[in-house]
Design the sequence.
């Protein structure tokens, strides 16, 4: 069997890029998500990147690690990285890991963009 | 006692979702609330991911067995889970969670398992090869409840 | 070839939910749509229920093994499932669905299995004890689609 | 392990009795549902009984058999038995079994009661 286990919707809204992975982010899916996020950060352009987690019902520590990685790469690249739309299971693993205060977390992707001033900027 | 439920998978991450769903369904039958079912499934997912990454160094054809004793008799309600592999042996003392104040990718799996289960113990299997992990959680447990528990080292 | 996923349960109906969830999750990984995942899980549920009721006469401590080969390689996508018991042997020809025009409780399980899977075959196991059921469904299959299929004997 | 796997809410609405099982109706749960339905039919009183399936996400043939049994007992007892609020999986197993035209099926319990004239008496 070989199945990356995840699809990632990729949208541009103003100066922001919104990535919406769909499916469980576990050890099976994390590598594919990592590739997509890396690609977007390396391509430059967007000053704001939102990872919208509304279609992610489940995340384990490999998903959390992928997002911690993404945050670091974003900082280096001068990009503001947001997480948005965390469901209950995803929120709870960030809380358990005490990373809920380390990330910029918004209720929706649009809220993240607004708070970044991305639509005017 | 032979486990009433036993799952054998190859060490391929594509099978993690199946293992999680099996465990969550068994927890529901034992009378766990939905949140607790999800937490026990998460602990098993983390344990299997560690066997795949650290035990088998991401080889996808190593055998892993998950033995489950769901118990819904009044008073002794809960679930006991044993995970056995045929991967390399390590000192159980070397399997430990990192300091959470050090924000880096990784180092969360063992912390999560300890946080959401009532007991987590690694040991070397008899015969020189493979590790065994034993975990349990009582239906009445408050492990994993709330945003920050006893094990979170807030100093 | 050894099955990459193998579930062993005792013949107790409390474990049916776990088996269904495992199968549905594996089907999702193979690329089946949600409805098809539910149908394959239903077929496995019906098969296990029959082993419990007819094979073991509702004894709850008989062993049942579910062997699963999920295949997501392009072209050969699908799932193959083998269910083995150690219950009494019956003539495979005696395991058949009833006429649906006869509305009575029961007699639906085998019909459902044949309706939603591409192949369903019972046989006696080697050694004089136990039955084996082999089922498969291709990811591209249209088995079980629509309200009334080819097998429904509309006359 | 011993767990009936199902709870059944039991309400009286006018002259109707509404039974709402909650959970999967499989070989594990069917016996408990059978007992509850039998008890209600034998107790007499209600001329209309609705089995509301809104909280049932999954049913197998043992659940279908239980309801076919219930329908027969209801007929003998002179009770009108309705099924209501079938979710997609439940509807599909009734269709596969070609029993969707054998049962009286309503969209909601209230619709079933209204169509029986149960609230006027
Ligand atoms: N099954 C295992 N076999 C060998 N070593 C393990 C196993 N599980 C965990 N470990 C060790 O314990 C450490 C902590 O594991 P964990 O908390 O899951 O974080 P991470 O795997 O991200 O490092 C690992 O880095 C590894 O050294
Ligand atoms: N695993 C089994 N072992 C022995 N007999 C079986 C088995 N499965 C099915 N059968 C036989 O096939 C018949 C049809 O099964 P099924 O369609 O599931 O309806 P039901 O079980 O309600 O009678 C059963 O009545 C039984 O005689």
Sequence:
């Amino acid at each position: 069997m070989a199945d990356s286990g995840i699809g990632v919707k990729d949208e541009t809204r103003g100066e922001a890029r919104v990535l919406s992975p769909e499916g469980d982010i576990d050890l099976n899916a994390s590598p594919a998500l990592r590739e997509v996020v890396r690609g977007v950060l390396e391509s430059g352009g967007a000053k704001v990147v939102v990872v919208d987690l509304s279609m992610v019902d489940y995340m384990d520590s490999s998903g959390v690690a992928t997002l911690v990685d993404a945050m670091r790469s974003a900082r280096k690249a001068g990009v503001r990285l947001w997480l948005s739309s965390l469901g209950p299971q995803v929120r709870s693993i960030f809380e358990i890991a005490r990373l809920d205060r380390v990330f910029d977390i918004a209720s929706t992707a649009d809220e993240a963009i607004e708070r970044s001033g991305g639509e005017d900027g | 006692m032979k486990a009433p439920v036993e799952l054998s998978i190859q060490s391929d991450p594509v099978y993690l979702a199946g293992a999680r769903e099996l465990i969550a369904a068994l927890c529901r039958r034992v009378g766990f609330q939905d949140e607790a079912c999800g937490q026990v499934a998460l602990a098993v997912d983390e344990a299997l991911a560690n066997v795949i990454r650290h035990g088998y160094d991401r080889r996808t054809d190593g055998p892993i067995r998950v033995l489950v004793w769901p118990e819904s008799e009044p008073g002794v309600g809960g679930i006991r889970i044993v995970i056995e592999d045929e991967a390399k042996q390590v000192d159980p003392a070397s399997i430990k969670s990192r300091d959470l104040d050090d924000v880096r990718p990784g180092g969360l799996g063992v912390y999560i398992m300890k946080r959401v289960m009532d007991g987590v113990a690694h040991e070397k299997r008899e015969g020189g090869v493979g590790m065994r992990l034993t975990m349990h959680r009582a239906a009445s447990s408050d492990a994993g409840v709330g945003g920050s528990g006893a094990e979170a080292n807030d100093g």
In short: The CA atoms of residues 23 and 41 of chain C lie 6 Å apart. The first strand of chain C starts at residue 5 and ends at 10. The pocket of adenosine-5'-diphosphate (ligand 1) is lined by residues B 50-51, 54-55, 90, 94-95, 97, 106-111, 131 (CB under 6 Å).
